[in-house]
């Protein structure tokens, strides 16, 4: 029987159970089947699907010709199917893919936030439904960095500032890269109800703020997450791309540190899963890794890099930092591959944790410490190629930079006047050029500097009458800043600065700023 079980505020997906008898807990058996009528129940005549991968979080097996599989199970476990290309798993009421069975015979520990209720002995047959879904070579994915609401009001900010903007976007699926909430795990359900309006299947990565902070160690730190979202790490395919969700937060328990202690890591079991999963993925396939903490912080990164280095097509995405950075990892970073590995730390949907002065709608501007706005991304995949495009929250899509220059400049000081350009999604492989008053384009120099607009926001917080709202984080230097100077022959008048940038994907954006050039006083030589 297929069924949903309601536990606390959430739903636990139960795979199809073959009835009243129960098998020994050491081996899980089941069938991956073609759900011809989309009712998530294996009815008579619904055939098994061969060559589909199923995992227990360590081992990966392939279904036989009749769709059957066997996997070892030791104690608590989560079984899941690895969605193959051109097939789809059931999707729950709020667009959460249901591809797993959680086995908790005695249930989760009694933490502050509820986990999984007791599931009893392992069912005789744990079956997974699939139905055909044609998938093109070219498709789009919505990517959110940390959404991270700490209150219902901040869930509402997420709804109005970000989710309302992506409704209607042509995308095949969406992913949030961890820190779905800010320690308040009872906000998982409100978060899910908002994200559901993106109207695409939505996958979720666990972050350090999604953990049960009363868990003494990593083993049971994601019981509430699993109750709502399923396994903390898994894989699935869409079109020609193989996606792997990694849980790279190792929870160490409560300490004096605010929010508890954790480190970036995978653990032996997850590394073994990845190794076993990739054995079934052709070498020429694009592999996309989705994680919370940047890959450069993972303690087992040498082992992880070794698994990936021989693959010519790998990209990885993270969030966590609340700033933007493109990494091109090479030999000096410990990357052993022939070509650099591209890792992107994304801007977050919550920006700087929903901090900053509220706008006319009451939503904090949430500018990040690198001077960039909060927002989201669209990743476009085609074969082994991808393009990543940043969209600032509630701003025009072409708002991709801030240009800083003084409001007025004495003509005699033009050559010494800096122009700083913050290209929010820029990288060391971006080109940035400037022209003044219709003159020739000149290449700007990439520098590591603080954003002057963000510095002004921080200065305002120290004023006698500071703006309302939660104070912004400490300013950070950023590598997506470019420097130029006004020309020495700048003519007096209101003049136009134009900046154009082309990113690593070949996307070009243009920004503009007007500046007043003051004439040289008549009494000066």
Write up this protein.
It is a single chain. By secondary structure, the protein is mainly β. 11% of the residues lie in helices and 34% in strands. A hairpin with a 2-residue loop joins strand 15 (234-238) and strand 16 (241-245). The N and C termini lie far apart (93 Å). The strands form 8 sheets. A 6-stranded mixed β-sheet has the order 15-16-19-20-22-21, with no helix packed on it. Strands 3, 4, 7, 9 and 11 form a 5-stranded mixed β-sheet that branches. A 5-stranded mixed β-sheet has the order 14-13-12-23-24. It has 3 domains: 3-132, Immunoglobulin-like, CATH 2.60.40; 138-392, Purple Acid Phosphatase, chain A, domain 2 (4-Layer Sandwich), CATH 3.60.21; 401-518, Immunoglobulin-like (Sandwich). It contains 6 helices and 33 strands.
Please bin the fraction of helical residues: 10-25%
Largest sheet: 6 strands, mixed
Number of domains: 3
Straight-line N-to-C gap: 93 Å
Quote the beta fraction: 25-35%
What is the name of the CATH superfamily of the largest domain?
Metallo-dependent phosphatases
- What overall form do the CA principal axes indicate? elongated
Overall pLDDT score: 93
By CATH, the architecture of the largest domain is named 4-Layer Sandwich
* Low-confidence sequence ranges: 1-25
Strand order of the largest sheet: 15-16-19-20-22-21
What is the number of strand segments? 33
Q: Write the CATH fold name of the largest domain.
A: Purple Acid Phosphatase, chain A, domain 2
Alpha carbon gyration radius:
26 Å
Give the quaternary arrangement of the chains.
single chain
**The CATH class of the largest domain:** Alpha Beta
Number of helices: 6
Structural class: mainly beta
């Amino acid at each position: 029987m297929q069924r949903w079980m309601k536990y606390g505020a959430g739903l636990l997906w139960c795979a199809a159970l073959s009835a009243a008898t129960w098998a020994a807990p050491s081996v899980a058996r089941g069938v991956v089947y073609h759900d011809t009528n989309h009712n998530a129940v294996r009815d008579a005549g619904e055939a098994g699907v061969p060559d589909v991968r199923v995992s227990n979080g360590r081992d990966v097996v392939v279904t036989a010709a009749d769709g059957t599989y066997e996997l070892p199970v030791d104690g608590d476990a989560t079984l899941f199917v690895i969605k193959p290309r051109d097939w789809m798993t059931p999707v729950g009421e709020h667009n959460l893919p249901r591809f797993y069975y959680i086995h908790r015979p005695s249930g989760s520990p009694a933490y502050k936030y509820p986990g999984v209720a007791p599931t009893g002995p392992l069912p005789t047959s744990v079956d997974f439904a699939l139905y055909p879904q044609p998938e093109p070579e070219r498709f789009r994915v919505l990517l959110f960095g940390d959404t991270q609401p700490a209150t219902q009001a901040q869930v509402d900010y997420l709804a109005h500032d970000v989710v309302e903007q992506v409704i209607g976007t042509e995308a095949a699926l969406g992913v949030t890269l961890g820190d779905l909430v800010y320690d308040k795990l009872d906000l998982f359900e409100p978060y899910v109800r908002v994200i559901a309006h993106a109207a695409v299947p939505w996958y979720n990565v666990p972050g350090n703020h999604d953990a049960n902070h009363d868990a003494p160690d990593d083993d049971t730190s994601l019981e509430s997450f699993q109750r709502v979202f399923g396994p903390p790490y898994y894989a699935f395919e869409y079109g020609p791309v193989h996606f792997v969700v990694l849980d790279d937060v190792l929870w160490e328990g409560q300490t004096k540190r605010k929010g508890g202690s954790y480190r970036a890591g995978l653990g032996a079991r997850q590394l073994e899963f990845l190794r076993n999963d990739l054995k079934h993925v052709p070498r020429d396939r694009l592999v996309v890794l989705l994680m919370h903490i940047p890959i450069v912080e993972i303690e087992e990164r040498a082992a992880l890099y070794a698994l990936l280095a021989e693959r010519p097509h790998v990209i990885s995405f993270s969030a966590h930092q609340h700033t933007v950075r493109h990494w091109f990892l090479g030999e000096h970073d410990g990357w052993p591959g022939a070509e650099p590995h591209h890792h992107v730390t994304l801007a977050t949907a919550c920006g700087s944790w929903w901090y900053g002065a509220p706008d006319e709608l009451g939503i904090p501007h949430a500018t990040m410490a690198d001077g960039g706005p909060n927002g989201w991304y669209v990743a476009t995949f085609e074969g082994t190629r991808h393009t990543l495009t940043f969209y600032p929250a509630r701003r025009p899509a072409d708002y991709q930079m801030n240009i800083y220059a003084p409001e007025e400049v004495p003509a005699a000081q033009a050559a010494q006047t800096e122009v700083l350009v913050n290209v929010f999604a820029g990288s060391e492989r971006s080109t940035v050029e400037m022209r003044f008053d219709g003159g020739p384009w000149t290449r700007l120099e990439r520098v590591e500097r603080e954003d002057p607009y963000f510095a002004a926001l921080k200065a305002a917080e120290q004023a006698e009458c500071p703006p309302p709202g939660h104070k912004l984080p400490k300013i950070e230097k950023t590598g997506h800043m470019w420097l130029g100077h006004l020309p020495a022959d700048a003519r007096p008048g209101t003049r136009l600065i134009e900046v154009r940038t082309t990113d690593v994907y070949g996307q070009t954006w243009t920004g503009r700023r007007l500046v007043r050039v003051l004439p040289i006083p008549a009494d000066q030589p």
